[in-house]
Structure formats: C-alpha cells, structure tokens
Design goal:
- Chain A: Belongs to the archaeal Rpo5/eukaryotic RPB5 RNA polymerase subunit family.
- Chain A: Its main location: cytoplasm.
- The complex is a heterodimer.
- By secondary structure, chain A is of the alpha+beta class.
- Chain A has a single domain (about 5-75), classed as RPB5-like RNA polymerase subunit (Eukaryotic RPB6 RNA polymerase subunit).
- In chain A, about 15% of the residues lie in helices and about 30% in strands.
- In chain A, strands 1-3-4-2 form a 4-stranded mixed sheet, with no helix packed on it.
- Chain B has a 4-stranded antiparallel sheet. Chain B has a 4-stranded antiparallel sheet with strand order 4-5-7-6. A two-stranded antiparallel sheet of chain B has the order 1-2.
- The longest helix of chain B is centred in the C-terminal third of the chain and has 18 residues, at about 280-300.
- Classes of the chains: A alpha+beta, B alpha+beta.
- The interface of A and B includes residues 3, 11, 39, 42 and 57 of A.
Amino acid sequence: MVDVSQHELVPEHTVLEDDELEEVLTEYNIDRTDLPKIKRNDAALPDDAAVGDVIRIVRDSRTTDQSVVYRLVVE
Amino acid sequence: MTNVEYDVDDDTIAVVEDTDLPRRLKDNVYETLEDRGDATVEDADELAKAVETRYLDTRVDPLDPVGTVSAQSIGEPGTQLTMNTFHYAGVAEIDVTQGLPRLIELVDARKTPDTPMMTVYLEGEYATEREKAHEVVWKIEATKILALGDVSTNVADMRVQISLNEDTLKERMITPDEVAGIIEDSLGVQTVQQGTEIQFGPEEPSYRDLLQLVEELRDITFKGIEDISRVVIRREELDNGNEEFVLYTEGSAFGDVLEIEGVDASRTTCNNIHEIHRNLGIEAAREAIIEETNNTLAEQGLDDVNVRHLMLVADMMTNRGEIESIGRHGISGSKESVLARAAFEVTVNHLLNAAIHGEVDDLDGVTENVIVGKPIKLGTGDVDLRMGSTTSGSGQAD
C-alpha cells in the first residue's frame, strides 16, 4: 500500500488531544459539530483516529506561511 | 529568536518580528531592507509599521459578503473563457478539456472528467534512464492485440490466426505463451501456439462466432491498465538543471498507477478530483480543486483572479468530508431556506415540495431577504443604529 501522507497534495494530519480541542472550541466559540468534517474512511486519516475525534491539519498555505484547520471525524 | 536568512541586523529583526505580519510579508520586508542596504532601524520600523497598517486594512471586515464577492470575481473572468471544448495543451500533445467546459466540470464535481489524464512522475533511475522509463510505460499503457502483431481470419478453416511481432513482444516484455494464455482465459477457447503464431477458432464452425471472436480479441488488454489508452513520455528539465522523464497519460487510473514500481507516489497527480479524493483523502481533493481551477483560469490568461476566491469554493465543496458540487444537487440544494433554494434552479419544484412538507423559512439568509424585500443581514444591514434619545451631555461619548 502506498504511504498517502508522503504525497505532496496531502497536508499533515494529527489527532487533537482533548485539552487542545477545548482550547480550539473556546477560541472560536463553536461546538465540535460546527467544524468541517472528514470521513472515517478518508485515505489520509491517521490510523488511531476514531469517529468523534478532531483532526488538526497543517497546510502549507498559498496566502500565508502555514494555516491550521480542524476537521471532525464522521461516519 | 526566529532565524532570518537575510542580511539585516538584530535590531531590525526585532522591529519587524514585532509586527503582526505573516511570514511571507515579513520576508518581503527583509528583502526590501536588504536591497536598500543603508536603511536604519528607524527606517525599518517605519516600513514595517506601514506594511502592517496596510495589511490590517486589507483584511476582510466582519460581515463582509465574501461568498458574493467570490462569485462575482470568478464569474466576471468566466465570461471571457473560451467555449472551445478541445484544445491540445502545450505539453505532450494530449487532448485536455479547457476553458469554460473544464471549469463547469470542476464545480459540478463530475464523476469522471471529459478527458481524464494523469501526470506520472518517476523515481530513481526510472526517471533518468529512457529504457527504465519505458518499462513503466508498458506497465501503464493498455496493450491491445493489434499493437503486438497481425490478426487475420481464415474463413475456409474457421480459424483466427495471429502472427506476433517478435521485436514488439521483447520490447513490451511479454511472451507468446502469455499472450496465448490470456486469450484462452478471456475468450474461453483452445489455442494452438507455434513460436510467434497463435491460432484458434470457434467450437462449432460458424461464421458469426468467428467474427465475434475477432471483435472480442481486439478488446482484450494484454498488458497495462485498461483505462489508459496512450502514454506520452517527455524529458523535462528540473530546477537544479538535471533532466527527468515524465509520463503523461490519456485516461486515468490513479490508484493503480501509484502502486506501480518506479512511479513516484509523492508527486504523481491526475485531473479527476474524485480519484484524488478516493486515494489521497479530502484535504488533497481540496488542494486539487484549487490547483485545477487556478490552472484553468491561468491557461486562459485570467490568472489575476485572486486565489482566495478559489480557496473559498474548494473549502465549500469539501466542507462535509466529501466532494459536493456547487448547484442544486450539492451545496445550493442543501441550503436551509426554501426561498434560497427556489431562487437558484427549478423554482416550482422546490416551492411545491416545501408546501407539501410544510417547510418554514426563517428568513435568515441573504437571498430570502432580497426576495421579501427586507434589508439583508450583512455589512451595514446587520447593525441597528438608533439616534440617541438620551443626551450624552458631558462629552463622554466615544
């Protein structure tokens, strides 16, 4: 199987810890269900991610240096 | 202290790093300062402050209708896109849909593009040696019987005769045995093989069956990937002056190609956003949408469309973890408001269904409020201003 995370189109995906998640949600003042979604069977999802987890994605941004976004894992 | 690769002194770095600028702009500031050479710390401070002010000024204001602005910013140049469907793209004489049809294809999120193609990068010696690169080509390009030899029908004996070309076989690394085996497996006939000659025929002598067999024989893929009809090999120059071989394919099978030995699975791409989504995930699909829309516009000389608009489109299309089209089957069709949906396409159906299901419209969005003639809740429309009824008197007003 090909290591998808090595592809240049795929940014870094990491599972967010609970306390970090709290910080993010308070910062934006949102619920976790307001976040963009990522499917459970997504090819780039880390192996240890489960439904309900939030994934932190660090993209090389076109407009700034790096941009950090979050996605909620859904069925 | 952050590492700065420009030749400026520490005080200058401190001043610039202190501002609220993104990395890229800071680097631009350093570059300018470096070019000046004689800039003092005060000059640096002034410059950095000026850039920062301008940067903060140009950020999107709260309640700005970014979606509408994006729609207009893509829509206007869109009127100048060519309506010609086909056009050979500069590289590698491969037919690719461009201009308006391609843009429509992307935002409609079609399952397969009109002209699927892949750009296959190679790794190691596969990228530098032509022989090796060709090995990969034969693993990818679909090889049909007509490429391997001549087919003739002997009507008197009711036999199909194939005489294979030995050179081609050697080049494509396939033996007559293998060819015969594949024919037996896929047509269910017994073959007689002598050297490079292969013969077979229908069980019962029948003219129709014979022709049928020839038809089916032509469709068999002996080597390579069925969906890929043509591969063009090109030598391209790298940034560091070296050269490498790159393959361009007509037709795509992204997942299969990534697995092939010699293919660089970190750079190879295709123009089908669904294949990218399936194999690399939703984030890669987002990147691909931006890249493809941007390239389509740039190809037509419309690269002054700000990439932020395309990023917004891509963000919307990938928001739910799968690729959704813009339009009534996708994003517009899943809007909360009945009136907003009805305003887009097939008005009557939406209104009728809404009536049957007793839907309620809360008039929260923009379109709904335009329809009923209320101020929209955007920009200055969202704030209520009232003339002060109490005197602020002592001048404490701010």
